[in-house]
Design goal:
It is a single chain. This protein is of the alpha+beta class. Helix content is 17%, strand content 38%. Strand 7 and strand 8 form a beta hairpin. The longest helix is centred in the N-terminal third of the chain and has 24 residues.
Length: 138
């Protein structure tokens, strides 16, 4: 094999390795996602609404999953006794509201979701609080 060909092949190998390394370094750490669904009560079906938290980027979403004329109210808090923050989705069936909030990587995030009918949260439809570590896994 000529010196020039070996040099070009070697350069291509290095370039390929560097590209792979850059793609790996630029890709986000594995995100942890948790979700909760409303429960069936007061004439509303199970999973009428849902809420999600994704640790990479601290993304929250609240979604209306059922054509029942009601909206969905999600709540999130940092720590078991933290302040509850509401996220309301009144956009209608198969619509979601997305928000991002800066959450400390060393804390736990709690989420809950309920049906909200004309500004009245239907407490019997609320999911249990679900907890997730906000940091991404190594």
């Amino acid at each position: 094999m000529s010196k020039l060909r070996r040099h070009l092949m070697s350069g291509a190998g290095v370039a390929s390795a560097l590209t792979g390394l850059l793609l790996y370094a630029a890709s986000p750490a594995a995100a942890v996602t948790i979700d909760v669904d409303t429960v069936a009560a007061d004439g509303y079906l199970v999973q009428a609404g849902s809420m999600y938290f994704e640790s990479y980027g601290d993304h929250f979403s609240v979604c209306d999953n059922w054509k029942d004329g009601a909206g969905v109210m999600g709540y999130w808090k940092v720590g078991a006794s933290g302040t509850q923050h509401p996220i309301y989705d009144g956009k209608g069936f198969q619509e979601c509201v997305y928000e991002s909030h800066n959450v400390s990587e060393t804390s736990y995030v709690y989420i809950q979701v309920c049906v909200d009918d004309d500004g009245v949260v239907k407490a019997d439809t609320c999911s249990a609080w679900r907890r997730q570590y906000a940091g991404t896994p190594a």
